Amino acid sequence: MSFKARDWSSHPPLLYPDYKSTALRGATKPLVPLPQGKTETTGPLYGAETLSPADADLTLNGRSSGEPLGERIIVTGRVVDEDDRPQAGMLIEIWQANSAGRYIHKADQHDAPLDPNFFGAGRCVTDAEGRYRFTSIKPGAYPWGNHDNAWRPAHIHLSLFGPSIATRLVTQMYFPGDPLLDLDPIFQATPAPARNRLVSSFDLATTEAGFALGYRFDIVLRGREETPMERKP
Question: Which residues are catalytic?
Answer without folding.
Answer: 103, 142, 152, 155, 157
